[in-house]
Structure formats: C-alpha cells, structure tokens
Amino acid sequence: MTAVAGHLTATPAAPVPPADTPRPAWPPRLAEGVELLGEYKDSGYSQPPSLVRRADGQVIQMSPLLYQVACQIDGSRGPDAIAALVSAGLGRSLDSDQVRYLITAKLLPLGVVAAEGVPRALPKANPLFSLRARATLLPERMVNLLGAFLRPLFRWPVVVAVVVSVAAVDYWLFAVHGLGGGVQQVLRDPVDLLVVLGLSLVSAVFHECGHATGCRYGGARPGVIGVGIYLVWPSFFTNVTDSYRLSRAGRLRTDLGGLYFNLVFILALAGIYEATSSQVLLLVIAVTHLEMLDQLLPFVRFDGYFILSDFIGVPDLFARVVPIVKSVLPAGRRDPRVAGLRRGARIMVTGWVLCVIPLLLFMMGYLVLYLPGVDRALWRSARTQAHLLSAAVAGHHYAVALVDAVAVALVILPGAGSLYVVIGLARRVAALGRRWSAGRPVRRGLATGTGVAVMAALAAFWTIQGQFRGW
C-alpha cells in the first residue's frame, strides 16, 4: 500500500466566459462554502498569489487584485462600494465597471461568486497522476480529534528522542542482529505473510495520521482520511488542503509527518518484539523502511513530490512540465506559469522537469511497447495462484487459501492498472490532438492519420514480438 498526501491542485484564473454564462446576483455575494485563505506564504512566485477554497475542496489561485475584490464581497456592497474599498487597499484606481467585469468574467466562472438560476458544473483541475476513486475511511471530525490527541508527538524533545531511538534500533537490526530469523519464519509458515501485510496496512494508516497531526499542529484543519486508486495500487490519502494557509515550515511539517509517524510505528514494533521475540516483527520494520524510501520519490505524487513542491513554493509541479518544455524551445513563448516564478524556483522546477521527462517517457514507452507481454505474464501468474487457492480450499487449509487470495489480488491489480494507465494516456493524447486540430481539417486529417499509423505500428511490433501468443 502506498500513502499519498491529499493536497489538492490549485487552478489558475478562468478565461473570459461565453455569452450564455449565468449572471451573478446583485449585490454580489460569495458562493456558499467559499473560504478566503489569504496569501500563499513563502511561495516561489515573484508576485505571491492568494488562495481561495470552494466548498468542494478545490483550491483556486488568484492575483492580489482579484483576491481583494473577493474579500470585499459581502452580499450588501455594490460595485461602487467594492471599487472604492479595493482602490484604497491597493493604492490604485478601480471603477465600478472594472469590478463588474472581474466579478462576471473571473470570479463567477470559478464558482467563487454565487450565481442566479440553476447551479452549473464548476471547473476542477484534473492533474496528471492524481488519485482516483476516492472513498472516506475516517471523517473530518474524527481526524481532527485524532490529530489533537497526537499533537504532543511533534514537540521537538519527542521528535529528537524518536529519531535517535530509531537510529539505535536500525543499527542493532541491520548491523548486529539481521533479518535471517524473520525470513526463515515466513518460509516455514507462509501464513506469517498475512501478519506482515496486516501490519503494513496499519503502518500506512498511521502514516496518514502523521500528515493529519502535522497539519493540526501547525494550526490548520485536516480533512478526511480515505483510500483511492493511485496509478495501479490502492492508496491511502489525507486531505490536508488547509495546510496551504501555513508557512513553508508548516507545510513541510505536514508533508514529513507521515514519515515521522512511520518512525514512531517502528519504535512500537521494536517494543513489541522486545516483549514477544517474534522475528516477523523485525521483517515488518524492514518493510516499513522500504515504504519510507518509496515515499521519498519526487517523480510521482508521493510524499517526496509534495516535500519538493512545498520547499520550492510551487503548488503543482506537473502543471509546469508543458510550459517549461515550451519555454526552452527556440520559438517558445514565456508561459505565465513559468515567467511568474522567481529565478531560484524556476531553476529548481526546470531541473525537476529535466529529470522527470526522460523517466516518465521511459516508463510509459516500455509499458506501451510491452503491454500485452506484461499482462500475459501477470495472467499466467494469476492462474497459477488461483489453482493453488482452489487446492488450499479443497484441502481445508483456509489460512493458506487466504494468502493465495492475496497473491491473486496482488497479481491482478498491476494488470488492470497497466491497462488503466495506457487507456488514460491514450485519451489524453487524443484530447490534445482534438484541441490542436479543432476547426482545421488539414490538421485533423494529419492527427487522425498519425494516430492510425501509431496503432498499426504498435500492433505490428506486438505481433512480431509474439506478445499475443501463449495466453
């Protein structure tokens, strides 16, 4: 299981709406549930944006002018009063017509201002590699109570004691004792794998409690803890959107809180081992370390990605990939999402993009080229595990059957996930082609022909490689 911190993607201001856009109520009022979070602190932008959160949890990134207009909307002030207050606050002249335009063309389409008539679908970000099919495990009220109860764990003497103690445990485990006893115990009794899996799930949930507690310790309110599908695997997440109101230190504490709680969990396992001498617990400690290293990867939306994002002060790094690529091309234009960054932040984001592009191209290219072969191998393994499962059930070895059932699920999930990723990639590419060729028959023909040629080349490659045989 992989835990993904539940940051939500900030969206840029909306373009000018079409003529049939619903009209705001006059005098204007904020939409129900809208919360003004204030300036994005310690950001990597030359001009720090301000943040607004809608009732659906979507965070919207605004210019100071637009945010000041939103701040003066209270349901009783008209455009003239709002213009006067904003002009006094910003030290620049703003008239009522400009205020009407900002409200109608900018704030209304974003769902910040209440509209007359039937509610409409609001724009939401659809970030690359985001969590899908979310479900709630712990509601917001329970998460906040839990975060308040566990807050003392973030006091610096406790943090120092935990880190030093885990370092001592690791030295003893990996340099003195070793993992041989735990491995032999699992080989003698495969049912102990269920213990490893169960404790790993507990560790993953406790990891999410660390994100929530770190958010609560900084003065923000965490949301729900839940589970969803990330890429291939089921993943836990914590909605810590409110941490956007915190400073860089507060956001980083929230990001690192999950890994810190993994250390606390390791100490708990070490204490239970001292009392029981169960070698399998030491194996769980080693697995927890591997999960922590996995979480530090900054190239997908794991904790390492959010740590890097909050350290730089840029909410969504993946949203900068295409603008960065365009900006380095000979005829490329400076995209505001790049030009608006400070020089240091722009250098770090560019470095991240230069690392992530070849890695993702290699991963996606390999997956597409060898998709039938990979799924064939997974299907064979699933059939083998299913036969073992049937034999275990027939022999009334139900614990072994449960292990085999878990093995079947672990084999099926990557196969289904690989298909999901490839289909999602194909849909994104097709959407880009449609937008590029919209209203241009020549371009549309070129895009269609290119798509057909690519599919034909892939089918030929799969056939030559024999990836359709042996199913």
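That was protein one. Protein two is written in the same sequence-then-structure order:
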Amino acid sequence: MQIALSLIVTTGCFSAFRESRKLACYAGVAPFEYRSGSSIRGRTKVSHMANKKVKSLLHMGAIVAIRYDKQLKEYYDRKVQEGKNAMCVINAVRNKLLARIFAVVNRGTPFVSLNQHIA
C-alpha cells in the first residue's frame, strides 16, 4: 500500500512517465554501464540522483516479493546460484516490480501471474 501511494503521488497518477524504464531511472533502480568509448569499465551502477524514498520502498517490496512471490523467488535463487551479487539481483527484482506496477496501471487490469493464468 505504501509503495502504491508513494508512486501515485510522485508520478502524478503515473502521468509523468510514459515508460517503465524512465520511471526506473527516476527511482534509481535502472542499471547503467560505465563505459568510455568502446571500453566497458567495472560493474553496472545505478544513479545516485534517485528518489530515495521510492527506492527504499521498492527495496522493502522486493525483499517481501523474494520471500512470497514464487516467480521472483525462483529468479532470485537462480541468479544468486549463477554467481551474481545478491544486491544486484535485489535491484533487478526492484526493477521487475516497477515494471509490473507500470504495466498494471497502463493496462488497467489486475496482475495475473503466469502460473495463475495457466492453471
């Protein structure tokens, strides 16, 4: 509920952003490569000029989603098994949550998990 209220207020009822990727940049969960010309240096990083309140709420939502959402838990476990950094994977989950929220708002329909749709 807190995440929804915060996103509604900060995005002006989702009218300030046309794509979930732009909202992800604003919330500080979109990863960016550090590159100069053709060389890529170091790990991907997120913007420090993010809306910290939205980012912290998404972080708590991601932690809960990893615990209770079957798809996101499997995704998290698979990526950690592949050797990815746990915080990097949590950031990816935050980004996935934001994309889900944005899709639900744009479509105007409730979220239906693939597992629920097949069954």
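The first strand starts at residue 35 and ends at 36. Keep this in mind for the problem set.
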